[in-house]
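Dissemination and training. As part of the outreach component of the grant, students in the summer workshop were shown how a complex can be specified as a set of sequence lines and then modelled as a single object. The example used during the hands-on session is reproduced here so that future cohorts can follow it. Participants entered these lines:
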Amino acid sequence: MTNVTLNPQQPKTAEMAQRMDEVKGRSLWADARTRFLRNKAAMVSLVVLVLVAGFAFFGHALSPWDNETIDWDVLGNVKEMGKPSLANGHFFGFDDSGRDLYNRVVQGTRISLMVGVVGALIAVFVGTTYGAVAGFIGGRVDNAMMRFVDIAMSIPYMFVLILLLVVFGRSIGMLFVGIGLTAWLDMSRIVRGQTLSIKNKEFIEAAVATGVPWFTIIRRHVVPNLLGVVVVYATLLVPQMILTESFISFLGLGVQEPLTSWGALISEGTSTMGYGTLWQLFFPLGFFVISIFAFFFIGDGLRDALDPKDR
Amino acid sequence: MFSFIIRRLAVAIPTLLVLLILSFYLMQFAPGGPFTSERPLPPQVLANIEAKYGLDQPTWKQLLSYITGIVTEFDFGPSYKYKDRTVNDIIAQGFPVTLTYGTIAFALAIIVGGALGIAAAIRQNTWLDYFAVGFTIGAQVLPNFVMAPILILIFTLWLGLLPGGGWNGGQWNHVIMPVIALSTSYMASVARLTRSSMLEVLRSNFIRTARAKGLPENVIIWRHALKPAILPVVSYLGPAFVAMVTGSFIIDSIFSTGGIGYFYVNAAFNRDYAVMMGLTFLLGSMTILFNMVVDILYAWIDPKIRL
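and obtained this result:
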């Protein structure tokens, strides 16, 4: 008897549940994705950036030359013989030491992108952890931790970075440490502010009540809710890292030969432009400008897509 | 207000000390002293030199005498590389140059950037606005080390209008390119900040009230909208000042203007620790003090901020 009345209802509830799912499908992330996909500037930038990254990873394979061999015939007469040419496979011409510029630019792009991305990742990881812990624990610990950030922020970091590079030797490793040392500070402030507003929500209270350890609460419940802000800030952090690295490398204090980066290549191009070898300036400069542009547009696009104020 | 200044100083002074001690001990870690050269000096000579510069003392004593030297006599000690010069001489030589082009660039960035931002906001969606927006987007990717070579390329190599470097006592044609190279990207930031905050202010209720009671448009803009709209620009003054100081590293090395940045970068290459430390302290303390002044200014303009 009961079976008869219940059976026709069962498929109905399942169907309803399914329909509910379909409606619910527009989660925060799906919503953000549609907004981002609709943003033309950001999409074009994404394509450009994928191309630049592809150039950095697979660019060597397209060229018959490498980034180390010095062409002794060209050396000393780069202006006449080192011009970019598709015929001999030196697509971007030669650099001032008679090396193939195309492969040098590939190498520089790889290193600049790596510094940008890895530097931003370090900053995001350290800053998020620090900020979330400070905000979540609160009280005196929060006060002490944030006072430390205040003091560290008011130290002019460019000097400290140059000091570190002078004292511990100029290397990429030191550059990472120096850039990463300061970049996380902003991140930690932003994350702390967000954590403070999240920690009074009911689901945190529920987690505390069920006896979840505090670090697990931060990892499982606080950080995932911060992700939107963190992602936006991280994308905007990457071009800043690249700019800082290029600044330092331009001065000659960053990436050292035989390695190179956009900043170092632009610096070389600048010092030789008086001799009429302008391609040495324009190729690295072009890659630099286009990529920084793309990063900024993607960052802006993500902010528009993820900003809850705009919803 | 007074207690606010005291509280800001209470943070600023320890920060300065941290900066000073940090740089001092970092220098102690550095491999190779300032007198390490290709040809090793005889031990007695080295000992004599070290005694002359006080390097044979224990570290804390060196630090103490260094700090007392700065605090009491504003004396940063001798340079380790240029035997006939002290750090004070170097500051006296390079600082006026940096200050000249830095101040002009700073003023230019704020005045032109601010004016452009306000004009763009008032005439929103006209060609002027589009120009301003295009400029702010474009200038994001034109930091000083990109602007400087492009300027030299155009105005020196192609057009031959301006000298590509040197200072020449601050003659106008030597100043013009460093100033533009230094200020462009910050001018763009100021324009963007002013535009967006001006737009926000112009849409707010009190401006609607002002319009409703029939005030002329220029009174609305200059007397009522400007002050709240300028706030983000004030908070940007601090970073802009820092940028001016660090930008001088690039300007001096590209344009050979001989400012403080030239000596800083040179000292970094030569391991001239005395010069590096002195300049770090000087420029660092200027930055910290300037940020403090900006905070006070901000609080003075915006009464909503609690002191």
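Chain A has one domain: 53-63+91-310. Students were then asked to discuss how this feature might be tested experimentally.
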